[in-house]
Amino acid sequence: MTADTVISAQGLNLTFQTNDGPVHALKDVNLDIRKGEFVSFIGPSGCGKTTFLRCIAGLEVPTDGTLSVNGMTPDQARRARAYGYVFQAAGLYPWRTIGGNVKLPLEIMGFSKSEQAERVARVLALVDLAGFEKKFPWQLSGGMQQRASIARALAFDADILLMDEPFGALDEIVRDHLNEQLLALWARTEKTIGFVTHSIPEAVYLSTKIVVMSPRPGRITDVIDSPLPKERPLDIRDSKEFIDIAHRVREGLRAGHVDD
Fold first, then answer.
1. Rounded Cα gap, residues 123 and 158, in angstroms
2. Which of 7, 44, 187, 229 is least enclosed by beta carbons within 10 angstroms?
3. How many Cβ atoms are within 10 Å of 229's Cβ, its own excluded?
4. Confidence category of residue 67, pLDDT binned at 50, 70, 90
5. Alpha carbon distance 102, 120 (integer Å)
6. Sign of torsion, CA 165 170 171 175?
7. How many helices (H) and strands (E) does the chain have?
8. Mean residue pLDDT across the chain
9. Contact by Cβ (8 Å): 223, 209
């Protein structure tokens, strides 16, 4: 573990006890994530990607092993509001305006009304939703709602952003656009991002590091440090470097199935 490591998992295991017997969700997960990295987790459904993200967030408790977030336990990091979390669905309250949804965590945390207004304006501008604060969720497209959800996660300015397949339900054109916007947002804010996806092109396009996971019990079969430049137009997906990384991800997914 280096000085700039913000998330560190060592020998992490998680077994759920169910009425049908134990379910081994994670097995011997070892991973370090450094400050400012964009790390994608990819693997088949049920491989433990989301479970690992929830462990980082202190929403699940590993059976054994160690996990630290900003030098704290995940529960301490959660209480210290060290991260923002974006779920698969936008999860906006329909009776609140977009501005009202974004400022909800700020209200709970006791920020002054003036600082709430300043932060809401700033994060809505970051996700290109300036001027939409008085709209209601039903007046926005699915992609815009998800951007509002990202703004809410950014509102209290945590260093870490955890994203659980936030664009999975969107069509490919909207998804491409939001991928571009997310990269631009990451470049501007320099957050450390953990991102769950089922899409190989999305993982390769967005990430500085790609973590490939096997079917349950979730194990890491490969960790790929991307050689792609930080500036990434969409047409980089046609480059040899991009195709080579995508091939390695695919091979890692295949190897996970073979080892199972």
1. 12
2. 229
3. 9
4. very high
5. 6
6. negative
7. 8, 9
8. 91
9. yes
